Amino acid sequence: MKKYNVNCTVNGIKRSFDTRAGDTLLEAMRGTLGIKSPKLGCDWGDCGACTVIMDGRTVRACLVLAVEADGAELTTLEGITQSGPTKLQSELVKRNAFQCGFCAPGMILSAEEVLKNHPHASREEIAHALAGNLCRCTGYEPVLDAIEAVAKGGK
Asked: What is the dihedral of CA 17, 25, 39, 43, to 10 degrees?
């Protein structure tokens, strides 16, 4: 089967990898690039576990073909924590917002996107931004509380 070369930037580092035409970005990230924070959940784009930031916007890596990442800038949870925990992550820990943590990378990246675009986002805007991220453990309230606290702080 024919392979395609993909050149992209992942978490600030230029990367190059070969992929087949039908491979998803999630498969390439976890299998080829060894990045483990995006998770395989539903494999339909409904749960948000595979969320990554691609060229400044969150995408579901299970729905994006790896070849579509050619020339893209990709950010995962590993990329936003390179300098240590963010203010958002500190608030999430402070509020014991996650239990099992499976949904955490997708939730955090979605929250980072809304806070970047709307630093003083309302609780409604935050809830809307997280609508595509499913969690079986938290009931969402501590997650929303943490993100809202950051938004009220202006970060």
From this structure: -140
Q: What is the average per-residue pLDDT within 95-120?
A: 95
List C-alpha distances in Å: 134 to 10, 27, 32. Answer: 25, 20, 26
Asked if residues 129 and 117 have their Cβ atoms less than 8 Å apart, the reply is no
At which of 61, 80, 99 does a domain end? 80
pTM for the whole structure: 0.93
Q: Are residues 93 and 127 in the same domain?
A: yes
Same domain, 57 and 126: no
Q: How far apart are CA 155 and CA 140, in angstroms?
A: 21
Residues 17-28: pLDDT tens digits?
999 999 999 999
Are 76 and 91 members of one domain?
no
Answer yes or no: do 46 and 95 share one domain. Answer: no
Spatial contact of 123 and 148, defined as CB atoms under 8 Å apart: yes
Neighbour-count burial of 127, counting CB atoms closer than 10 A to its CB (0-12 exposed, 13-18 middle, 19+ buried): middle
Q: Could you list the residue range(s) of the whole structural domain that residue 121 is in?
A: 87-153
